[in-house]
Amino acid sequence: xxxxxxxxxxxxxxxxxxxxxxxxxxxxxxxxxxxxxxxxxxxxxxxxxxxxxxxxxxxxxxxxxxxxxxxxxxxxxxxxxxxxxxxxxxxxxxxxxxxxxxxxxxxxxxxxxxxxxxxxxxxxxxxxxxxxxxxxxxxxxxxxxxxxxxxxxxxxxxxxxxxxxxxxxxxxxxxxxxxxxxxxxxxxxxxxxxxxxxxxxxxxxxxxxxxxxxxx
Length: 216
Fold this sequence. Notes:
Number of helices: 5
Shape: elongated
Strand content: under 5%
Distance between the termini: 68 Å
Number of strands: 0
Structural class: mainly alpha
Helix content: over 70%
């Protein structure tokens, strides 16, 4: 009887959290179409401004890269939430969920490093004189979206950490220490890719406006 009651309570708790995750997923899906339209229109505007040599080219490019970032940030959130729901469907133990979460954090660290390598190896800011405006902006957008996805995933993992903490009802002292550590890692990761993106967008805008495209 005790086991039956325990199982019933666990199922009830899971259903409560499943409702929370489902609502979040619906929100992300409902926002995606608007962001996709904005990203496309911003990219088209930036291409037009640069092709026509308009003075607003740098600003329009910044808006396009920001729109690409916002879209991919939402995508990163949605993908990470989906991965959580797949993981939790098997009713894993706390230890397995901790391993899953750490694996996701390690994956984001690797992707952040890959984004830095891609920017350095491609030297895309120098490519404006050798490829079309469309190709150049496309390359800039791809890197923006790569970093945006990382940022979105990190933000979603921070929220997931709170959900899992409540779900497993871990001991208060251990959980507090663990939350602070993981929150610090995720905040640092998100801040790092945001800083890289800001610098990247600034240099892209300068390149678009002045033609000075030297990569430091």
